From TrEMBL:
<feature type="transmembrane region" description="Helical">
    <location>
        <begin position="110"/>
        <end position="126"/>
    </location>
</feature>
<feature type="transmembrane region" description="Helical">
    <location>
        <begin position="162"/>
        <end position="181"/>
    </location>
</feature>
<feature type="transmembrane region" description="Helical">
    <location>
        <begin position="34"/>
        <end position="55"/>
    </location>
</feature>
<dbReference type="InterPro" id="IPR001932">
    <property type="entry name" value="PPM-type_phosphatase-like_dom"/>
</dbReference>
<feature type="transmembrane region" description="Helical">
    <location>
        <begin position="61"/>
        <end position="79"/>
    </location>
</feature>
<keyword id="KW-0472">Membrane</keyword>
<feature type="transmembrane region" description="Helical">
    <location>
        <begin position="133"/>
        <end position="150"/>
    </location>
</feature>
<feature type="domain" description="PPM-type phosphatase">
    <location>
        <begin position="222"/>
        <end position="429"/>
    </location>
</feature>
<keyword id="KW-1133">Transmembrane helix</keyword>
<dbReference type="InterPro" id="IPR036457">
    <property type="entry name" value="PPM-type-like_dom_sf"/>
</dbReference>
<dbReference type="InterPro" id="IPR052016">
    <property type="entry name" value="Bact_Sigma-Reg"/>
</dbReference>
<dbReference type="GO" id="GO:0016791">
    <property type="term" value="F:phosphatase activity"/>
</dbReference>
<keyword id="KW-0378">Hydrolase</keyword>
<dbReference type="Pfam" id="PF07228">
    <property type="entry name" value="SpoIIE"/>
</dbReference>
<keyword id="KW-0812">Transmembrane</keyword>
<protein>
    <submittedName>
        <fullName>Serine/threonine-protein phosphatase</fullName>
    </submittedName>
</protein>
Length: 432
């Protein structure tokens, strides 16, 4: 006894984390620090070069610029060594000191460059974790109180104290807002990724189910029949299907269907049509199986099947070589004689979901004759133009073995990405 396959949805739910931080590229710290360094160094150069910007301590000003450049170098090293990324937060923390030195050297409380500290505030606060609100708050305090360390005798007036407190609160509020927005964005991204993984898992499971419905080989068929078939879906789940099986009278039935569209929706319709037709194994008339499929998909006046109709070729070959077939708007089935000549099996019937009545036709096969049916995606392999059908006919006439035909069509389909499903089924009848 085989165990039941694990529930894919449950597996994804069990392994889905609550919040996942997206992996950031190694060059991001360098890019962020480049902006901050440009502002700090640019401010120092502008202050030294223009008379209307104050310079009260040139050495401290250039120390701030040098520190920003040193931090840029560290960020550059992180690009080459991802292990250093663990210490990334050191860079924006250092920027608070660099901005503090720049501010002290360009007029202290009168400096116009204090606003630069919003950049490291955003850098730190944008990460996950509430502690990232406190770090920018401490960094802002360090920037504003740095003059008291550099100049111990530096006095602070009441009005300046109020201004510094307000500045600290404003930058702290900015950090809190950025952190909250970042947290919400991260939650939405995580949920989006989780839903995407869940959808991919369900689509993969649907593809496994669809492949399991395709016949593996013709070992269960009577010895007078040789069969070959394949389906190369344009997406993980395709709208094409094929099937073959032995009939109760000792013959063989086979089907090829093409649901309009691609993906899971058409794949579900394809599975339904295939199942209903196969359930008619005891019905000698192929048209009856098609009519049952149409009835099974009809849900009344609001049926959506009309928007995704299914073209279908279904046939039964008896032991004496009589081919009874019905074509529901397909038109891509050919009988290839043993001598290489071909004849297309045509009908005026409409596809399932559009038409309401189908009748069967009969053809007497000769030993060695083959019946080959393909989906319209095969014509794209021959250029997809008006002469594709003629090129396809030449391809069929030039190959006398159905397995060769199937293998070469599959090889063409897998050379490049296709816009439509490529499906082929071929059966050869001969004396035992």
């Amino acid at each position: 006894m085989t165990s039941a396959p694990p529930d894919t949805r449950a597996a994804v739910l069990d392994t889905a984390p609550v919040i996942l931080a997206p992996a950031r590229r190694s060059w991001e710290p360098f890019a962020r620090q480049s902006i901050i360094t440009a502002f700090v160094v640019g401010a120092a150069i502008a202050s030294a070069a223009t008379p209307w910007l104050s310079v009260t301590d040139a050495s401290r000003m250039w120390q701030g610029a040098a520190l920003a450049l040193a931090l840029l170098l560290v960020a550059g090293l992180m690009v080459r060594s991802p292990a250093l990324r663990r210490a990334e937060i050191v860079i924006p923390i250092g920027d608070f000191i660099a901005v503090g030195l720049l501010r002290f050297g360009t007029g202290d409380s009168q400096s116009v460059f204090l606003a630069i500290i919003v950049l490291p505030v955003i850098w730190i606060a944008a990460g996950p974790g509430r502690w990232r609100i406190l770090v920018p708050l401490a960094g802002t305090c360090a920037t504003l109180l740095l003059p008291m360390v550099l100049a111990p005798g530096h006095g602070i007036t009441v009005s300046e104290t109020v201004r510094l407190v307000i500045a600290v609160l404003v930058y702290a509020a900015a950090g809190a807002v950025v952190n909250e927005l970042s947290r919400r964005s991260l939650q939405k991204l995580t949920m989006s990724q989780w839903h995407r993984r869940l959808a991919e898992a369900e689509v993969s499971q649907a593809a496994v189910v669809q492949r399991s419905l395709q016949p593996v080989d013709g070992s269960s068929l009577p010895s007078r029949f040789r069969v070959a078939g394949a389906c190369v879906p344009a997406r993980t789940v395709g709208g094409d299907f094929y099937d073959w099986y032995a009939t109760l009278d000792g013959g063989t039935a086979f089907t090829l269907g093409d649901v309009m569209g691609k993906g899971v929706g058409p794949g579900m319709i394809a599975a339904a049509v295939r199942t209903v037709i196969r359930s008619s194994v005891d019905e000698p008339d192929p048209a009856t199986a098609v009519r049952r499929a149409a009835v099974g998909l009809d849900t009344g006046p609001t049926a959506a099947i009309g928007a995704q109709f299914t073209t279908c070729f279904h046939a039964r070959i008896s032991l004496d070589g009589t081919l009874r077939w019905v074509d529901a708007g397909h038109g891509l089935t050919v009988v290839r004689s043993a001598d290489g000549t071909t004849v297309f099996l045509r009908s005026g019937h409409l596809p399932i979901g559009v038409g309401s009545n189908w009748t069967s036709s009969e053809v007497a096969l000769q030993p060695g004759d083959s019946v080959i049916s393909v989906s319209d995606g095969v014509l794209d392999l021959f250029g997809g133009s008006l002469d594709s059908i003629d090129l396809y006919r030449e391809f069929i006439e030039g190959r006398d073995d159905i397995q060769t035909i199937v293998d070469e069509l599959v090889a063409r389909a897998t050379r490049a990405e296709q816009e439509d499903d490529v499906t082929v089924i071929a059966m050869t009848w001969g004396e035992a």
